[in-house]
Amino acid sequence: MIDIEEEFLSFSEENDLNSMKEYIKKYNISQRTLDCALANACELGFSLIVEFLINNTNVNPAFDNSFNLQMACEYGHTEIVLLLLKDGRVCPYAEDNTPIKNAAKYDTNAHYFIIQKLIEADENVNYTYNNNELFQKVLFRESDHDNRLLYFLWDKKDTIISNYNFIFRLTQSSNSYLVKNLIQDYKIDINHPHFCNNIFCHFIQNGHDSLAQLMLDEYMLSIEEEYIIERPSGFLCLLEYRQVDMINQYLRFFKENDKKYSSCYRVNNAIIDLAGYKEFKSIVKEMTNYFKFEIEKEKEELLLKKLLMQNDLEFFNFFVNKFNIDLKKYKDEIIISILTNKKYFFTFYESFKIYETDIFPLIVEHVEEDCIIEYLLKDKNLSSKIKNNEVLSKIFDKVILKNNVEAF
Known about the structure:
408 residues; mainly alpha; Serine Threonine Protein Phosphatase 5, Tetratricopeptide repeat
């Protein structure tokens, strides 16, 4: 004998709406069977059957703590969720907000749509559970997804954002529009020195230059001046990542304050490091004006080598004169530099008496002869040097005679 109610349930599993309608007309189907048929349709996504059954007064869509809604949310059946919410008998926050938690398990546009509809349906739906787990997940979703839920939640950010750490977490999102909005809307809350520096450095380190610039304009130069100088992590980060425009903006700030700031080993190291790059020459000079730059003895040789590598005599002399560097201690380094740049030949020819060194013939080979002639002919003491120095005498004869230049 056919079990009418079991067969009715089988229709709900096969999406056979017509047979279900026919059986309801013919037979007295129990409420329990009707509720089970509704549960089948909600789980399997048969929205027409759901719509038909919830209009039957004998069906309770909210049975078992709105289990039908919980399943529809988990399986991403958007039409069924809308039907159940519209019916009004289900509880959108049942079982400690299980419907929204079920929907949040999956990263699909359908589930995100359901989340939004649940929040809209009842103010008691808690979307800030687990320390804003949902909001963070949505915020860090790939940008090519449907972002309607993100913007929907963003309008509620005053109820979500609770502390500095969470704001810092938000600033790490790849959604630059929202981060920019966050920075501008939360100026009072973000304007904490240590917090500012952390966010600013994060932007620089991850290539978000436009956001770093916004932070610099909105915050960095308006927070306590003492903090900027005593703990200049933001400025040092700019130096490390070679952000010339923003570095200059900082330097203008230093200039406007017209003060000499205490330096630190990181500033000193940055100056020494940047001294090796031509494009940072003006910045290095400015930094030595605003910071009490002191060259550590063990770093002095490194600085000189970087300056010599620049082949920029004017820049070299700037440091030597400004910090009273004793060049005699670095005779070997100076001689080696002459091998690569004729400018240094003129500078150090007399100072170090390089004509008395064994390496002098090699030096001459690497300096243009017309430059040597020009200098030697200006040397008022050349005659006495030639008499007392066999190497110099031979080089002089070779260079001068080869170029048909008359000696004194």
